[in-house]
UniProtKB/TrEMBL annotation, chains A, B:
Residues 15-95 form the HTH arsR-type domain. Signal peptide: none annotated. Pfam families: HTH_20. It comes from Actinomadura spongiicola. SMART domains: HTH_ARSR. This is Transcriptional regulator. GO terms for molecular function: DNA-binding transcription factor activity.
């Protein structure tokens, strides 16, 4: 099975914002922003999340919003941030969001 | 009755994103971004929305997310975008979001 992803021109900013407007999804994207391909399990480990089923929903929201690529690989899923697509369509948006999350961390 | 608003340092980026991650709320904020104080009715007119009760919910989400100030005035509510608070805490975020909405308009 392959997952469906929106084409770059099908991405909508309200979909990106609602996808990232959740603390768990925002935290997951911050992990993915370190670059490269991650598998679900490794992201959950970093986040300290054990409820894989809940995360399945979050990955879907991020994928359908155009924020991540998700591809099955054996019994795992590989995840990658769509940074170039997002930066091309919405210049500065992802950086401002990730900087904002860091600001929130710093101010408790 | 006065509404409660988060202090600038209580604003969280995921709250801002989820508040703006809805097409009606994003459209309302684009109207408010024209500047100054608006009343609910005038924003609804611009958006072509007649269901005032639904909008009450949307104003609350925007207010609690720290995106707008909402103050009662007689039988109306006055609304104002918290642009300076948002720009100070999350530089570039609101501009990137509003530019993104314009990009979406332009690409259908």
């Amino acid at each position: 099975m392959r997952y469906r992803h929106p084409e770059p021109e099908q991405i909508r900013v309200d979909g990106v914002l609602s996808a990232l407007g959740h603390p768990v999804r925002l935290a997951a994207v911050r992990v993915l922003d370190e670059g490269g391909v991650h598998n679900c399990g490794s992201v959950l480990n970093v986040l300290g999340i054990t409820a894989k089923s809940t995360m399945t929903h979050h990955w879907r929201v991020l994928r359908e919003g155009g924020v991540i690529f998700q591809e099955p690989s054996g019994r795992e899923n590989l995840l990658r941030l769509r940074r170039s697509d997002l930066d091309a369509r919405y210049p500065g948006l992802l950086d401002a969001i990730l900087s904002g999350a860091a600001t929130d961390d710093a101010t408790g």
